[in-house]
Design brief:
The complex is a heterodimer of chains A (305) and B (547). With 305 residues, chain A is α+β, with helices and mostly antiparallel strands. Chain A is 65% helix and 10% strand. Chain B folds into three domains: 215 residues, Up-down Bundle (Multidrug efflux transporter AcrB transmembrane fold), CATH 1.20.1640.10; 68 residues; 133 residues, Gyrase A, domain 2 (2-Layer Sandwich). The chains are: A alpha+beta (305), B alpha+beta (547).
Chain lengths: 305, 547
Amino acid sequence: MLEILGKTNFDFMGKRYLAFAFSGIMAVLGIVAIVQISRGTANLGIDFSGGTAVQLKFDQAIRIDEARKILEANGLENAELQEFGQENKLLIRLKASTTIEEKVADRVVAVFAKEFPSNRFVVDSSTEIGPTIGKKLQEDALIAVLISFAGIILYVAARFELRFGIAAALATFHDVLAVLGAFYILDKEITLLVVTALLTLAGYSMTDTVVVFDRIRENLRMRRRESEETIINNAVNQVLSRTIVTSLTVVLVLIPLALAGGEVLHDFSLALLWGVVFGTYSSVFVASPLLLLWPGASGRMLKRS
Amino acid sequence: MKKVGGRLALLVLVIMASVIFFIPSYQPFYQALPGWLKKVMPSKGITLGLDLQGGIHLVLEVDEDRAIEIAVDRVVVSLQDLLTDKKIPVESASRTGPTQITIQFQNAELKAQIQKLINDYPIFSEPEATGPANRVVWELRESEAKRIKDSAINQALETIRNRIDQFGVAEPIVQRQGLKQIVVQLPGVKEPKRARDLIKETALLEFKMLDEDNQPKLDLPARVPKDSEAEILRQFEAKLPIGDEILFERGVEKDTGREYRVPYLVKKRVMLTGDVLSDAQVSIDQFNAPYVSMTFDSKGGQEFERITGDNIKKRMAVVLDNTVYSAPVIQDRIAGGRAQITGTFSMQEANDLAIVLRAGALPAPLKIIQDLTVGPSLGKDSIEKGVQATLFAGALVVVFMIVYYRLSGVIADFALVLNLLCLIGALSALNATLTLPGIAGIVLTIGMGVDSNVLIFERIREELRSGKGVRLAVNGGYDKALLTIVDSHVTTLITGVALFLFGTGPIKGFAVTLCLGIGINLFTALIGTKVIFDLLNQRQKVDRLSI
């Protein structure tokens, strides 16, 4: 039997205040990110903010400062440029300051065709999104997330206890906030795909938490004499090897995707990687200790076997 | 122990169904099948989303206010005709607001007579019964405005569909979204700009008479430079005779290649519109220049014959989207119902013009409010890289499971493959569209599938450690893990359903794969792998389990 961890007995619950402090900071960062997003000052992808993105693939290498210069010379200021190393790809993004009727994408293409006549290129992709659509997308995503959280709290509360539901939802929310905060700090663009990744990690983190809770419930039913802190701590230790094996497998999937999955999958996999780290951490250090903050109600439903 | 037979049969059945449904998604293999087999097989599989295969996704909005203005403008023109026919002298009859027509006149005694004209136009009402004695104001009824808006979007939808059909795109999607939006998806289109132009062109074809009586009085310049149109219009605005307008023809100087515009004084009254066309084709004239020849339907042909007969030696303008294409002198009555549009076209422009003429005009201009274009090369890139990375990642997981769980790891890997197979089979059966977020959903599902097995195996290990026999340990492990697996899957399912119901576009695609995956996961984890364990146990008495 190959085991990463044998039978363990770490005192996870004893570290809870340290964990709460760390998580608190991450959550605050995430909340700052959300506030900035709703104020429109964060690095929102054009799928949310509206605007234009054109990706060009050149035959020869192109200097990013030259590209910026010629765009400015042709009246396209405030373009964000990003290049993808070896492949001579250039991504040009313009946030929605103009109306879409102007066909900004066509203008960008025309500028490059005019200024770099010897360096031929193809248009890999172009995206133009009117500001109203982005707004709608933001609202829809928010509603979907809120409703799924409400549903999860209700389900977990029915299967376990209300405090389990709230703890699970809080822990999951914490993970989403933490990754969002990290994206905000690193000034990574928040696109629809990143939001999808956040939803994926919410699902992952929720699963992780429910697995731990399940064991806690089982142990609460069996060993009534021990203190709740001991019972929860034991449960976390018992599922620890599963937690680590599963996380490891998911990380095994994500690393190749992040490194070699192409530019589209890169940010997505990166968000998920962080999500797995936080999700694993939170089911051990956040969700379970949260249960201890709200004792009292313990038992009624759980001890009926 | 429960009988294995029934569950095994179910498992085999599911695998077969998945394979059968999956086959059409892999075209090279499907095409190689014999014909009789293709007939009994499902013919459609998974479609790749635009982010994976390239193409255009457009969201268009019909300019409703403009649609109403256009409708009201038409009434104004016919009203002016009516006033002329009935010889009622008025100062002006014009649209004075988005939905308002005002008729001004000198002689107050005419008021009753003019007010009565509204009976011919029941879509209008008179808001003010009393008012100045020399003015009548009509207002478009609100119910009519609503009807015009509604029919504008339906007509636009129909027209776009026609045009795209003729453009020739495999599996286009043209749908109404909400009240005034139209979604157009053209997968795999190679010339996105051309397709976009084709969709957006209003293509309103009109035949109008030049006002040759007033043209000398106005003294319009023969030629003006390009982009000076607005200035010319402003300059002559005050002098325009009632019921006339200035339209321009495009031209190019042969030797310098410079563009210019020719202004014409044209009567607003529309003699004939493009709705009476039955066909439009590209032809080549003796100078090898392409032009579009049009055929009228029988009613249009008769109309055209009458109009040309009545206006011999006068000039008629062929106007497309408010640009004059030609203004020939009518030499004789034209029977046979044919006309042509000449101009300086390339062959492709002439072709596209013929398409939009055949498909009909849009009721109002369209605004593009979202435009996603993915070049075919990027799509191919992302598939290749994505598939390679996913395969590599999958191989890593497979190896890891075998190293960690030995023989049981092989069973888990079987579950993994089964999972993927069923998921792809189910997506094919639903003819789902696979997008990048959809792949994300698959990755999450696979993760959960592995997790279910890890949960079960860790439980079995615990049972073995506590000294139970293999069979008891396996059963105990499954039983105890069952609740956990169900709980974790249901919570994720709740997320999936919420996202499906309230999410839009790409998020919905993610939700579909997620929800399907969860159901399949439960099946493979609780039935699929258990059958294998039970088979192992049944064959011989197992003393040691490789786990």
